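Comment thread on ticket #2218

A.B. wrote:
> Attaching the input chain for the structure job we discussed in standup.
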Amino acid sequence: MFERRGPWERVLHATGTDVTGTRHELPLHAIFGYARGMTRLYAYQQIEALGDPARAAAHAAFAAFLARRMAERNVELVTIELSWVATNLDTGTTEERAIGTFGVGSRP
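C.D. wrote:
> Ran it. Output below, let me know if you need it in another format.
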């Protein structure tokens, strides 16, 4: 009936930079919406490749996907930085693990 969660909750952070150097926090919740009804899991949290440091090509493809979604919102990005931020629910401490910075260019 009840699901036991671990003491850590992780959230993906994605920040893009446009050609002027302005940084934009990407609205991942708006881009993806909820993946499982009333749960707090979003689709990107279930992409196994984002948790595997050896999957750089998949990370770059995900960043390119995000750049296309932002272009639909009239924000042209040249780079996207991805990182996981984990919060210990018992102590409140946070840890950040960088996934990488990816050149996504800008659409012509």
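A.B. wrote:
> Thanks. Noting for the ticket: The first helix runs from residue 28 to 32.
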